[in-house]
């Protein structure tokens, strides 16, 4: 597997979860531009196509194509202003999504140099569950994991025990033809 350091611990958890629910023969649309994890998925035999960097709040045509059997969204939904519209417009019937969880002791992430690298949402688990339910998805499996750091202090100690990431496998209630 991959190293146990950040972000590789997250990659290992995500890859194991993906393999548990998705067969390598299924065609995947991974929301977001090609990234280290989409390359890992390809190395592991998954058939993955990424979106092209378009603003998914404004342009979500690819979600309406029917040639994908799975949509993946790994740490993407926290950057969107309107994840409801995205989830509502997905035409395939399988979804694997992960998000960073809101931590009471740490403010939402906001890059000082990159205006796109910001978290508009950091979800509590029940919020993402409710969003999926309201948009026609049924959660079949979920996991959480921590993200400890090597730093010293109260926050790093809390990160050893409080989950930071949440991943879900869901299926569409009434997949649209």
From TrEMBL:
It comes from the Bacteria. Keywords: Methyltransferase, Transferase. GO terms for biological process: methylation. GO terms for molecular function: methyltransferase activity. This is Class I SAM-dependent methyltransferase. It comes from Flavobacterium litorale.
